[in-house]
């Protein structure tokens, strides 16, 4: 047993209203720079829908994640090390900018410089790649709220024989996505330079910017397409799990700002020695349970001893015992992993939404809160359940049904409590819970306060003042503006905060460019 | 060419070039580790790149191997191995011409793509343009010499350029040997030296990042936070699997 800690996230999808606040605050924090205009470390997709980048889940096309070779051993789906090396000069598996979307801004300048005329001037779209006028044809959430045809959704195509859902069968929910900070990250495995690594202290997967050489193998290796290529610096960038915040015990920006308060952060202990074997489970249906079996019980004295042996601080053990994420994933089995069949052992889990079921029941004129109605509907509604199974359990409907039945039990139990009725104990018992469990679930899902939702230990030694800020004077002559001697962004890297600072000052003092809310320079590339 | 000019070009310049090349690489690595990348433009355009880049690079790899064999291995070695003069030149012609043509076709397509694809052209710096001029000139002059050597059998560089080249590394550069070579050889050699001299200061440095160790490392890499700039912790990162 080799105990390793992982800071993991759970999102409760029933509560997501699709407001994109998480995406926008994340973008403002991490990707409001040239070169990553098209990049959303956090994006919110409407499901069913194509996702971002378009149809990223179609691994027959993109070949991300792992597969088993003839002998049942794990191998990156895009090929082993030698095969990838032969394809290093250009990769047909990398999405092009059109698969994400061509980033654009608006020609705000005309708004202030246009001569007086009868009609108000219009800020026409400009490509951020070329600066040329462009037509906006696609974006990161173009099919928001079923705004487009959902039939190209690869998961829907698997479960539904008729390609188009009839109106009565339509259902919809939002899926916020960040990097999964996988236990078996195929991005790390794909990086020929060894620039990507999983931090042994908290499991956060990061790119060493000084070691990345721009081979782009990680972009193709990640089945979730959560590594992005910065086209200005020629380096890979990815969600950092807001490590500077997590290190001091703060939640990630997306969690902190989530309007629905639906994100939970906490520590899970797992057995790193068994990861490879679990990820190589022969049947895809077993992958969810195989991953569950990796998680260790921090209250088990043997585990605690092994954790101390491995140097895990006491406060981390304590946090692991109080982990809300552990309750949702292990204790109540409410949360499920996204696409376990990619075999990367993802660590951002989701409580599947009951709302498609509630809506269907309510839409048919029945009481959508009534336990009996809901239980019946979970069994009867084939498409939503198998769709959710296609997302969260490699197609096995049982874990999804269990989670949904528990959510339904929670509803009807709490309704009885709120109406002053005696809750029927059989409702909880039927899905393997007690009334106590249900009330604890209710507390965590509906009431939990900040420090209950985010249990993040802070044992790192203090770093003192943030290093970055100290060297701001070294950067004269407008850092981050224009290109270095050897091309875009060569020379010493400009710390993000300094680049943003100068970007802000430039916008404030520039005569020619209008305000751009996302800190882009409004002039396109350059 | 007068004596001192020859000395300057074939005796002083090679050492200057090597010095700039070596020190340049060290300096660039220390100063600009962040800019040491392929600066890939695949995100902007992939259809042409998919053909052009592999054709260019694989052609170039063969060309480099050809240079190593042709310049470093003396003629009497290959003869001792039982390779006759005509066999050697035949294979040099075939391999050299195919590899050279691939390289040239590849770079032509790359330059065409660079010029005609909006975002790729926008991302092309003055430095890149200068590099392309020197690189293309080196390839063209090189192909010219291949044709001369092998097709017309006019001149055997293994009696002129190669001894001079090997002499450099034993500190006995033989300027007389290389001056005996016809002008295309001398031109190609001169451009080659220029290319080496600018190499550390262009995007070409990515060649020295070639990930040769990838096949030998575990798939999953764990690193401790302390190894990445943070203060030391008690834990050490275990080796991945
Ligand atoms: C084995 C070592 C090498 C590897 C692995 C390698 C790999 C690459 C890669 C991945 C790209 C980026 C292509 C893209 O996506 O845009 C590239 C571009 C390029 N490489 Fe190499 N390369 C190597 C050696 C060389 C050498 C020795 C030269 C020339 C002396 C060279 C010249 C170039 C040029 C000129 C480009 C720019 C192509 C363009 O976009 O116009 N490479 N290389
Ligand atoms: S989701 Fe994150 S950790 Fe997992 S493979 Fe993709 S980039 Fe790597
Ligand atoms: S901020 Fe919260 S509610 Fe809004 S889209 Fe993001 S996850 Fe959903």
UniProtKB/TrEMBL annotation, chain A:
It is found in: Cell envelope. One of its GO terms (biological process) is nitrate metabolic process. Residues 502-526 are annotated as: Disordered. Its main location: other. GO terms for cellular component: cell envelope; membrane; nitrate reductase complex. Residues 7-36, 170-201, 203-232 form the 4Fe-4S ferredoxin-type domain. The keyword Iron applies. The keyword Electron transport applies. Signal peptide: none annotated. Pfam families: Fer4_11 (PF13247), Nitr_red_bet_C (PF14711). GO terms for molecular function: 4 iron, 4 sulfur cluster binding; electron transfer activity; metal ion binding; nitrate reductase activity. Its cofactor is [3Fe-4S] cluster; [4Fe-4S] cluster. Keywords: 4Fe-4S, Electron transport, Iron, Iron-sulfur, Metal-binding, Repeat, Transport. NCBIfam families: narH (TIGR01660). This is Nitrate reductase subunit beta. The lineage of its organism: Bacteria, Bacillati, Actinomycetota, Actinomycetes, Streptosporangiales.
